[in-house]
């Protein structure tokens, strides 16, 4: 395998510009080969900003024989189309979250990747931050005793109604945008899959996209995960894990800037506050993905299976909201 993984960029999004492309440039084992956009002018603008010699359309990226992997950062509703095309072109795929708009779609994406012997990973950068690893370590050490619940709030001030997240056909809405984070975090920290879900989505009547979500996941042995996400709210990015002997709280849990320390609070009658040193979790994600492709290290989770399990839970959330009842995850097949 080549010394560095050469990335092609499919989609010149805000997150690509602010975080993922800079992370690839910072990496010692990955580099940008070509940048693709819907318009040549935007691709050229990004290429100039990031000192990339090659730019063009999405098809140009897929037709480039130098490209080992693609980073897909188009709207959620287009993830399946470009992931399948990338797989058929023999490119490994780092796909922005949420992976897609349905469980059936996720199965098609993974099937095509496996058929073409390429890897596909959903881009949850927070899972690579040492803060969640520290929380997992404390849980495993029984620092707060037997775990009972996970509670999370993730939301932001109002976004423009012209934003793609308000376009139903492009997979907009708070569930795909932010609800996916605490769902993923609860699965990681409980180290198991939920048994059932209840989800209530509050939808903008004009744009027909969900702006707020209240979600309850049930796990085995009575464990629960509660989460509230939304637009037009005071910024929150926090989760707490409550056990028989204490509570673990992580502040700025999901999208933490590379120059900010994560604050972890351990409350077991006495309160201990711990700072986790600043790191670029986007770079950690890029390196982790690249090393797996290079076979330099073995991932502690299966990319494809994790993408499918996450998509299955989110599909169950949609079904719960539509049918106004608790949905067993096993109903989603």
Describe the protein:
With 333 residues, the protein is of the alpha/beta class. The chain has 2 domains: 5-125 and 285-300, NAD(P)-binding Rossmann-like Domain (Rossmann fold); 127-278 and 311-331, Dihydrodipicolinate Reductase, domain 2 (2-Layer Sandwich). It is 34% helix and 28% strand. It contains 9 helices and 15 strands. It has a 9-stranded mixed sheet. Strands 3-2-1-4-5-6 form a 6-stranded parallel sheet, sandwiched between helices. Helix 5 links the parallel strand 5 (92-96) and strand 6 (120-123). Helix 1 crosses helix 8 and helix 4 (79-88) packs parallel to helix 5. It is globular. The two termini are 37 Å apart. The mean pLDDT is 97.
Quick structural summary:
This protein is α/β, with parallel strands linked by helices.
Index terms:
2 domains, globular, 9 helices, Rossmann fold, 333 residues, alpha/beta, nine-stranded mixed beta sheet, Dihydrodipicolinate Reductase, domain 2
Tell me what the CATH architecture of the largest domain is: 2-Layer Sandwich
Rg measurement, Å: 20 Å
Under CATH, the topology of the largest domain can be stated as Dihydrodipicolinate Reductase, domain 2
Strand content of the residues, in percent? 25-35%
Annotated CATH homologous superfamily of the largest domain: Dihydrodipicolinate Reductase, domain 2
List the domain count as a whole number. 2
Mean pLDDT: 97
Low-confidence stretches: none
Helix content: 25-40%
Number of strands: 15
Distance between the termini: 37 Å
Secondary structural class: alpha/beta
CATH C-level class of the largest domain: Alpha Beta
- Largest beta sheet: what is the strand line-up? 14-13-12-11-7-10-9-8-15
Biggest sheet descriptor: 9 strands, mixed
Order of helices and strands: EHEHEHEHEHEHEHEEEEEEEHHE
Q: What best-fitting shape do the alpha-carbon axes yield?
A: globular
Number of separate helices: 9
